[in-house]
Amino acid sequence: MKRLIEWIAGLIGVAAAAFAISWTLYMPNKDERGVWLDEASGVIIDLNRWRANLYHQSDVACLYDMSFPAHMGLVKAAEGAWIKRQGGRTLSLAR
């Protein structure tokens, strides 16, 4: 039983280390940080170096949806979207 607990603790440690390493690799760079809007769906993502906040915009209100670590893989998983810049300073989400 003790070996199983040690094995599980080791597995959790490796998974946490892998996530921390991948977070530093997939952290939003300076160009990706900021507020991103997909006008078609009304999704707004506010990215900073450590955190991403997701909002949904309607004609009447802008509603907070969730926050998660600013890992570009998680941003894609949250909305199935990649962030790209479209002409000048116009920002949008690219599906």
Structural class per helix/strand content? alpha+beta
The total domain count is 1
Q: For the record, give the distance between the C-alpha atoms at the N and C termini, rounded to a whole number.
A: 47 Å
Order of strands across the main sheet: 1-2-3-4
Query: What assembly state would you assign to the polypeptide chains in this entry?
Result: single chain
Percent of residues in β-strands: 25-35%
**Total strands:** 6
The helix/strand series, from N terminus to C terminus, equals HEEEEHEE
Number of helices: 2
List low-pLDDT spans: none
Please give the radius of gyration in angstroms: 17 Å
The biggest sheet amounts to:
4 strands, antiparallel
- Mean pLDDT over the residues: 79
Helix content: 25-40%
Shape: elongated
Which labels suit this protein?
95 residues, alpha+beta, 4-stranded antiparallel β-sheet, two-stranded antiparallel ribbon, 2 helices, 6 strands, 35% strand, elongated
Short précis:
This protein has helices at 2-26, 72-79; strands at residues 34-38, 43-47, 51-57, 62-69, 82-85, 91-94. It has 95 residues and is α+β, with helices and mostly antiparallel strands.
Description:
The chain has one domain. Helix content is 35%, strand content 35%. It has helices at 2-26, 72-79, and strands at residues 34-38, 43-47, 51-57, 62-69, 82-85, 91-94. A 4-stranded antiparallel beta sheet has the order 1-2-3-4, with no helix packed on it. The chain has a two-stranded antiparallel sheet with strand order 5-6. The longest helix is centred in the first third of the chain and has 25 residues, at 2-26. It is elongated. 11% of the residues are buried.
